[in-house]
Design brief:
The protein is α/β, with parallel strands linked by helices and about 375 residues long. Helix content is about 40%, strand content about 15%. The protein is built from 14 helices and 13 strands. The strands form three sheets. It has a seven-stranded mixed sheet with strand order 2-8-7-6-5-3-4, with helices on both faces. Strands 9-10-13-12 form a four-stranded antiparallel sheet, covered by helices on one side. It has a two-stranded parallel ribbon with strand order 1-11. Strand 5, helix 7 and strand 6 form a beta-alpha-beta unit. The radius of gyration is 21 Å and the shape is globular.
Length: about 375
Amino acid sequence: MSTLALDVGAVRARFSALRAPTAFFDAPGGTQCPDSVIDAIAGYLRESNANVGGRFGSSRRTEALLARARLTAAAFLRCEPNEAIFGQNMTTLNFMLSRTVGRTLAAGDEILVTRLDHDANVSPWLELADDLDLRIGFVDVHDDTTLDLGDLERQLGERTRIVAFPLASNAAGTLTDTNRIVELAHDAGALAWADAVHYAPHGPIDVAALGVDVLICSPYKFFGPHLGLAFGRADLLERWRPYRVRPAALEPLGSRFETGTLAHELLAGFVAAVEYVESIGWGAIRAHERALGQRFLDELPDGCTIHGLATMDGRVPTFAFTVDGRSPASVGEHLAEREIAVWDGDYYAVELMRRLGLGAEGAVRAGFIHYNTLAEVDRLLAALGEL
């Protein structure tokens, strides 16, 4: 299935969840899992459930799984296995890693975040700033939700230590010019700290090509279980002093930042999720998702307003929109009654919703993923047409 032609029927047959009548456009909040992921989790619990460090078979199989999970993370992120860090979720990992890097910061240092971000890459820095008397700057966005790189360049200064930004907006689907952001950050002597949660199910990640110093994502957004995954550049991880219990091993390097026992069964699911993505191929995924998004944009009924880019260029197929005369909540309810799953609200993109003037009500969000069909998109369009 690695060619550009995607057999959506064959893909959907690999997901028991997709036998339901629901059209799942809720992927920005978490994708469905293929049966291979579910089976991997259950298989671990049946056959290998143990903690590490034992001399018996199930413990040794668990240690082998941990090694395999790091190799899988390295392949998915294009990093070294010892640069991978696992945790509960992206938010928890980001609070932990921000506290860790905070040990290297001083009062008056500056962190830049963006108004495009999910709050998981904003609030950890706000809390750290409150603790350490740091300065926080917000990089603005243009009216079309693209990041204002000129504003970033103006705000960078000699005390800027970190530039935190998303690869893609979880609300509007907008992509960022990651290479340019990284270049500007590094030229100012700052770290480039990327949130790849929303981008990860839509395209390949290569941390070396991107040039980022830290990148965090969530496997449950790319067909895996609820889990967090981070990359940290090896030389940084070597220098940072981790929060850890004294007997915990210092190697592999990334494990220094993993507190307590990991959810081993979920690591088995993570490995299966990456294997699933590899079996489909990014070319096929991207081509099909672009077709889904284009259908939605071409046929969107009058009275529906897209908040963000009006083309498929520069975005992933996630759309924030409002319907004239209807609250986002009422639209979400209308669609739910027709077995169409979307989100309404601000989806933790607090700054972007304020910037767009949408407030706490936010917007309706439909996120397409490669297991969705054109027929499902047409169902959504017809249901919106009823309004």
